[in-house]
Design goal:
This protein is α+β, with helices and mostly antiparallel strands. Helices cover about 35% and strands about 20% of the residues. It has 15 helices and 22 strands. The termini are far apart.
């Protein structure tokens, strides 16, 4: 039997490195293993705020972190989903919630009932049958009741967090659990001459760090995975249209919304991420259709509140590592690649990669079959995510700028072509293996972009339309009443998890 991995070395801090450290510190408890994190003292974290998805809530709970403690420490607010403004056409908006719509009736998909009644001349809005959407529209928030059996009340939520404060929080959390934290830069990576594995790191403070498993959290540079091991990126710029961003923080004006705003602009889209103490703003754009200076000015012209940071400009390589796990090096976060943050997937991809590493955690044999399986699962996951990101652009009906006209004409993968065709034909949502976004998320896109199927599920012809309409009217009223009875988002925060004024990242 192969020997166990004894020494884990993480290169890079920030959100990625410290999420890895926190997760692995729990894994190695009661094991004869050491965990070292090497963090450069010279790299400033971007700190533009981070929107998350619901698995982030579970990640922290699984670490034993108290919800309210985390929210207070990171100036967090709650997130019921994303509101997309002016993506389909100017003046239109739609909402992507963390929940299914309505409830299945007679074991048939709820949205097919909407499609049937609308085909008969009704004008039903599927968003009326989502409790978190109605709650968000009223600026409210409530946590789901875990004992509630009503499917209309089953939904999830996430957080908007200050990424800098979150990294600081996890630093303290991890160090208390035995993680060895070294502030230094890696000056040399020593590879084993016989098998090409990473053997040790030399730091600029003269220290020599040996390890068995190395986790590269060094960002776009990929100090280990690319710099030392030569694993490059598979370019995805031919698929994803945006390659640049500008970001700025502003004072919070009014109460924070319980959702992220994604606002389509002339050559991309703008994010608005509200925290308890400020607003994070950014403009993701294509440099083929707008200059950096024009994008910067467009962002500054649209933000509310006084700016409290300088505008930062970012260029990012769109792509993924050819393999994220190579020999004894596992790339995580930006070191593994980058897809634009349209659906708040940055932190989620860190989590899912860590979950794969834990499931197939190596011994000193570093079995190639395990490594190949993790790389396969990771690539499948990213392929499906690319499809979901692309549908936001491909289905637009905007023709007012060259960027949006390009998006309508750009090529898309066959998998996405098939998914769109099947929905247009009969309202059926094709689901592939390893999808990060489930049926309800795809329905948000199809309804949001006004895609009307040619037909509905013919099994519904056996049901009386008047009875269906009456049932749906009751659902709508029940949801509206429940949303009206909830606290406002700000009132909920004030009551349960308001941060101290001195908790800031600067």
């Amino acid at each position: 039997m192969a020997q166990a991995v004894k020494k884990i070395v993480i290169v890079g801090g920030g959100t990625t490195g410290w999420m890895a450290a926190a997760s692995l510190s729990r894994y190695i408890q009661d094991k004869d293993m050491s965990l070292t994190l090497i963090e450069s003292p010279n790299i400033n974290t971007v700190g533009v705020g981070e929107a998350t998805i619901p698995n982030f809530v579970d990640f922290n709970r699984n670490l034993g972190i108290n919800d309210a403690e985390l929210i207070k420490a990171t100036q967090a607010t709650f997130k019921l989903g994303i509101e997309f403004e002016e993506w389909s056409q100017k003046g239109e908006r739609f909402f992507h919630p963390f929940a299914a719509y309505g409830a299945p009736i007679e074991n048939l998909d709820f949205h097919q009932y909407i499609n049937k009644l609308n085909a008969e001349g009704k004008q039903l809005d599927i968003e009326d049958y989502s409790f978190p959407i109605q709650l968000a529209k009223k600026g409210g928030f409530a946590q789901p009741n875990p004992n509630q059996n009503n499917p209309l009340a089953q939904y999830s939520y996430a957080y908007h967090i200050d990424a800098v404060l979150y990294a600081k929080f996890l630093t303290e959390f991890s160090v208390k659990r035995g993680v060895n934290h070294i502030l230094a830069n890696v000056s040399e990576v020593k590879l084993n001459a016989e098998n090409g594995f990473i053997q040790a790191l030399t730091l600029d403070n003269g220290k020599h760090i040996e390890g068995d498993l190395f986790i590269d959290c060094s960002g776009f540079k990929g100090v280990l995975i690319e710099g030392a091991m030569g694993i490059g990126l598979d370019d995805l710029s031919h698929l994803l249209p945006c390659d640049s961003a500008v970001a700025v923080q502003t004072e919070l004006v009014g109460e924070p919304t319980p959702y992220t705003r994604a606002i389509a602009k002339e050559a991309g889209w703008q994010w608005c991420i509200p925290l308890q103490h400020r607003m994070g703003n950014g403009y993701i754009y294509s440099s083929k259709f707008i200059t950096d200076e024009e994008a910067k000015q467009s962002l500054l012209d649209s933000v509310k509140g006084r700016t409290i940071t300088d505008v930062k400009t970012f260029k990012f390589p769109l792509g993924r590592r050819k393999v994220s796990w190579h020999k004894n090096c596992f790339a995580l976060g930006l070191a593994a690649g980058f897809l634009e943050p349209l659906e708040s997937l940055g932190i989620s991809l860190i989590q899912t990669a860590l979950a794969k590493l834990m499931t197939f955690f190596p011994d000193m044999s570093f079995n190639q079959a395990d490594i190949d399986e993790v790389n396969r699962l990771h690539n499948d996951e990213l392929d499906r995510i690319v499809d979901f990101l692309l549908v936001h652009y491909k289905l637009t009906q905007r023709t007012d700028t060259a960027f949006w006209r390009y998006c309508q004409e750009m090529p898309i993968p066959k998998t996405l072509e098939h998914k769109i065709a099947m929905y247009k034909n009969r309202g059926h949502v094709v689901m592939y293996d390893n999808e990060s976004f489930q049926q309800a998320s795809w329905l948000s896109m199809f309804y949001g972009f006004n895609v009307t199927p040619s037909r509905y599920d013919v099994r519904l012809d056996h049901f009386n339309s008047s009875a269906i309409a009456e049932n749906l009217a009751k659902m709508k009223a029940q949801i509206a009443m429940a949303a009206n009875n909830c606290l406002s988002h700000q009132a909920f925060i004030d009551k349960h998890c308001k941060a101290n004024n001195d908790v800031k990242n600067q």
